[in-house]
Design a protein that fits this description.
- The chain is of the alpha+beta class.
- The protein is built from four helices and seven strands, in the order βααβββαβαββ.
- It has a seven-stranded mixed β-sheet with strand order 1-2-3-4-5-7-6, sandwiched between helices.
- The model has no long low-confidence stretch (mean pLDDT about 95).
- The chain binds coenzyme A.
- The site of coenzyme A has 19 residues, from strand 4, helix 3 and helix 4.
Length: about 160
């Protein structure tokens, strides 16, 4: 079951991100700050956390937010599934949930960023299988030999150049 995260989910989500290998514990304070800020009035609608409960435990979580200087572009900044439950469709269910929600609200584009390292080959395959395409690559972004790859998905059925004359 997928539901909006609550403030009380914070520790479970942070533990999940560490368990999934997204972050080391030392890197958590800024993530914790982002989580806390997301529940303040005024930004709540544009910064969203969701969790997926599976067999009574919090098995997956994601954070996605509106790209401020854009026309209805959203960024799936974080997604993680507990290692023991990976490969069972939970990640896909989470991404589909995000896509359906944003599409129904008239949002246009969903992007997601990941690393070019071999360690992230399955993550890249995951996005490609979900219909994302590699849109941009920023060389050496995360370090020498570690590019940032931006994957892209149009949420709207309206062609992006439909308004050009
Ligand atoms: C990437 C991730 C969110 C995918 O969620 P998931 O529930 O494991 O994925 P699903 O079961 O819905 O989809 C399975 C597909 O995802 C891909 N995949 C990516 N990482 C995987 C993993 N560790 N285990 C199994 N499949 C994985 C494969 O393409 C797989 O398809 P296949 O079975 O044909 O090989 C999850 O594996 C994860 O948390 N990984 C570590 C953190 C991470 O890399 N997050 C993304 C950062 S940009």
């Amino acid at each position: 079951m997928i539901r909006a995260a609550r403030p009380a989910d914070k520790q479970s989500i942070l533990d999940l991100m560490v368990a999934a290998g997204l972050f080391v514990r030392e890197a958590l304070p800024p993530i914790e700050a982002i989580f806390d800020e997301s529940f303040s009035e005024g930004v709540r609608a544009e910064r969203r956390w969701i969790v997926c409960e599976h067999d009574g435990q919090l098995a997956g979580a994601a954070y996605y937010a509106h790209e401020t200087v854009s026309d209805r572009v959203w960024n799936l900044f974080m997604i993680a599934v507990l290692p023991d439950t990976q490969g069972r469709g939970i990640g896909q269910e989470i991404v589909r949930h995000v896509e359906v929600e944003l599409t129904s609200q008239g949002e246009r584009i969903l992007i997601v960023e990941t690393s070019s390292l071999e360690d992230f080959a399955r993550t890249r395959k995951f996005y490609i299988e979900l219909g994302f395409v590699e849109e941009a690559r920023i060389r050496r972004y995360y370090g020498d030999g570690n590019d940032k790859i931006v994957f892209y998905k149009a949420l709207s059925v309206v062609p992006l150049d439909a308004h050009k004359s």
